[in-house]
Every structure is written in C-alpha cells, then in structure tokens.
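[[Encoded backbone]]
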Amino acid sequence: MINYKFHTFVANRIAQINEYLPASHWFHVRGVENPAGIVSRPVTPIGLKNNSLWFHGPQWLSAPVNTWPIKKFKINHNQQEDLQEIKITSLPAQTLSTAEPTHPIHDLALRCSTWTKLIRSLVYAFRFVKLLNSQGSITPNDLEYAECRVLRYEQATHFSRELDAIKNNKLIPSKSVLKLRPFIDDQGLLRVGGRLTHSQLSFDQKHQILLSAKGRVVSLLIDYYHSSNLHTGPALVLALIRQKYWILSARNLIRQRVHKCNSCFKLKPLSTQPPMGDLPPIRVSQVKAFVHTAVDYGGPFYITHIRRRGVKSHKAYICLFVCLTTKAIHLELVSDLSTDLFLAAFKRFISRRGPVSILYSDGGTNFIGAKHKLNEIYPLIQSTDYTKYLSNYLAQHKITFQHSPPYGPHFNGLSETNVKSVKTHLYKTIGNQILTYEEFNSVLVQIEGLLNSRPSICVLSSHPTDPTALSPSHFLNITPLKFLPAEKVDTNISNNMLTRYQLLNKIVQSYWNRFSTEYLTSLQQRDKWNSTSKPVSVGTVVVIKDDHAHPMFWPLAVVSEVFPGKDNIIRVAKVTTNSGTYVRPVTRLCPLPTQ
C-alpha cells in the first residue's frame, strides 16, 4: 500500500482550515478575480495604487449571492497525486532496486586494464582491510595470496555447483568438468585431476587450476600471457597458460583476445571496406567521347633528345587521358611532372579530341597546381579586354576539375587500369632500350591505336553472323567535335536511301544501341567489395595506412568528420592526428579492434 501525506506546513494549514470551516462551505473562485493573488505576482506600486480589484474587490460582490460566478468545490481523491504539496513517504514497489550488489573483485577487474594492475591493486586493498600483514614493497607472497583470492572468487562464481558436489561427494553435474576429474586442494582451489599424476611434471602442470572462459578476470590473464611473451600467437599462448591453468574452451577465447590486441593489429591492420557503389551517370550516359575524362600519369621512362654518343638520358612520363564512357584513351608524352607541361599536354589533348566537360584526376600536386592555375585563368578570360579565340573558347566551355581523395587510387580506377596496360605494351616493345623523344612518341601513338581497337566494350561472339566487336575506336572521330548527333534515323530504311549525313547518324546510333543493350547490362554485377564492414564514425580511433613506412610506425588518428555518398555509404573521412588534419578514403583507415 502506498501512503501519501502533505508537507508539514501545508498539512497544518489544512487541518486548521477544516477545524474552523468544513469543506462543505468551500467555493471555488477564479484566480484572476481573487484580490489576494495580486501581491503574489509582480506588480509596481503605481499599478497597485490604480488597481480597483485590490481596493474594492470583484464587482460581483455587490450583486445578489445567487448571481455570483462561484462553483461548489469538490475534493477528487484520485487527483491527489497531481498536487505539488503531496510528499511521497514510501517508494513504489516497482521502483525498488532488486539487483544484488556485485563483488569488489568483480568491480575492480572491470576497472583494471591488465592482470598485473589487478593483482597489485588487490594487495593494497587486502593490506587496508588487514588481510595481509606485510608492509613496504610488494612481495611474491603478497602477489600469490591476491592471485589465490581472485581465482577462488572466479571458481565460486562459475563452478559453484561443481564445488558443492565435490564437497558432498556427489556426481559432478557438468560433463565437461567431469572429464577432468577435478578436486579441491589445500588452498580451496579447484584443480584438474587428469591422468598425469605419475609424470615427472611439476604439480601445477599435472594439476592445473580450473577456470571458466567467462568473465573479465580470465581475459586479463590471457592478455598478460600474450603480452609478456612478446605478443606470441594463439597456439603458444595456449601452451604457456596450460602449464598452470586449464581454461574451458580456451582456444576460441585466446584467438579472440589475440585478435583484439592493438599492438598485433598495428602489425597487420585490417581496413574498413565499404560495399561497391552504383556507377556514376558519367559511366552510363550517351555523350561524345572524352566529354567526361580521367587523367593519370605513368612512368618514369628514360629518353634522349637526339641520338649520338655520350648523350645523357632524361626522365619522361606518359600523361594518359581516358574517356569514362567509351574507355577510349589518349596518350601524351611529357618531359616532367610540372604544372606547365601538364597544361601544355592538356591543350594538345583538347585540340585533337574536342572539349571536355569534367576532368577527373588523383590528388597529385601537379594536378592540384593545374586546378589552381585554371581557377586564376577563368576571371581573366571572362573579361572584355581579353578577346582572343582561346580565351573565348575556354570561357564558353568551362571545364570542371575534380580529383579523388589522397591515397585513393581506386576512385580513379579506370585510368589506373589503362596505365597498367600501356606499361605492359611498352615493356614488351622497347624493354630496356633508350629511345629518342620522337621514337618514344611514335611507339605511344601505336599503343594508343592498339588499345583503342581492342574489344573492351563488347567482346566478339562465337556466332559467325554477329557483327564485329564494339571497341572505343568506333566512337572516335565520327561525330562533330562539340555535339553528339541528336537526330533520329529510322534504322529500317535502307542505306541507299539515306543521305551521307543521315548515314553517319545511323552508324553512330547503331554503336550507341549496342553500347546500351550489350555493354551496360554487363556492368550490373558487383564483382568485388560486396561484404559490408562496420562503417567508421566520428570519434573512432584508427590507424592510417602509409605505404612508405613500417606498419608499426603508421600514425594513430581520430575520425573528426565523415562524408556519406548519395547511397548514404561512407567512403571518405577526415581524420585528425598529432600533426594535422587529413582527408583519406576509408580503405586506408583501420579501426582499432578495441573500439
């Protein structure tokens, strides 16, 4: 039963009022018509002086009593709980806590991070409660006493039925424990009887202390053996532990604890792998070749300017432009990785292949520098004073320059794949020979034509009546430099009845029809990155992969911001280290296993 009563002051006032005037004579008057309520609210002296309600009361007091706007007051005992003056003297039964108090050793084990810290902390605790009489430095006997108390607590928690059965000479209920033929030693510890009694091993090896795989204490013990033995593997940790302890189902638990070791994880970290996303519109749209282009560099290669004796070789690089829609490539030979030479190669590219709408690249400094320089050129070429043909052309066809996050080459995977193909043909063709600039450029042009003629879009069919394979070369140099023909031509009309312009349109449309019906459907399947790993979140501690350093020296960082994509999957994140803030793809971030 729940009993309530008012606070002392309120209860005394109610009792006094009931003594002088019973509740049957009570009436309810609205608060706005009660003169006593005026001074209980904020009011200025001038406002109180001019307040007629304070000096004369409500106007209905001068009227007959039967016209007064009052109501009979009724006490609703069911609404007493809503009154603020009511004080609860006893808590409801459902609010009383029924949780049993935990053992001090259990609480201390949750707060300690290592086995050594747990045992040494218990030594000081036992000294404080006078269970240990030693003073000064901790002795081996103190550590042994504290360890014995911890192990007895663990066995009493997980093997209470087995201990009672052994003490009462009854059959042990657990079959897994019964196979070990356990017994209780002089210290009250449950040990393994086993079959090695007559061996020459020590007493601890013949009769290990029996422990359960559950609980924080056993996990700390496994971590201690793992770290104190130079972070050895699960098999050796199990062998070392069984020299003194026998843990039920120890093999799986040891593997889990070794997997969660941060030091071992840093040596071979596992990064977060988001699932493969949908293809962007630029990969599946019907546009002119090289409207959406990706660029990448390959090399270095060694060339000479002229062929004569004693001439030193110089480095040269391949600047590769690849169409993200048709997979066509364009190769340019550059002497170095400067921004000026990249802009020169880019001008040669758009002069031959037509304008570009969007240019994708990696995070190289030469591309970033070119982006900054293009951004400085745009205000200049849009001015009225600068009226040359090139400035008007660039102002009309402004190019969007985008680059993938640093250390994320898979964001520009199409260009990386073609760079590999170009290098393969180069090494097979020239080997270790050093060619001149003209010779090397001639080889590049031939490789460009070879790669553009390969059936990389739709492969050849085994049926002899099928048309030839669809290759990137079908989409090159068959359309105007600016626009894709939008005029539709009836494919059922014979070619003899079409004009030359309509015939070209029909040829282009046949290519794009095959592109839509044969090639796009082949991109439906996700060949890799299908399993979804746990995404990183703000505040996650990660290890940043660095290809130029040993894994043990990879820096630690904290994720400060994430950038979800259109499918709400996080593939890029911003991390903060002790040396600064960086943007990295999540494939380069390895969350620590203890998160």
Remarks:
- The first helix runs from residue 8 to 20.
- The chain is about 35% helix and 15% strand.
- Residues 239 and 245 are 10 Å apart (CA to CA).
